[in-house]
Amino acid sequence: MGIDKGVNLTKMAAQEPLQDLEPTPDRIPLEEVYMRMAEELAKRSTCARLQVGSVITTGDLTQVLGIGYNGNARGLPNCIHSEQNALIKAGAQLPGKVMFVSASPCVMCAKMIINANVARVYYREAYRDPAGLDVLRQAGVEVIHYNRWRDSWR
Question: Helices 82-90 and 107-115 sit at what angle, rounded to 10 degrees?
Answer without folding.
Answer: 10
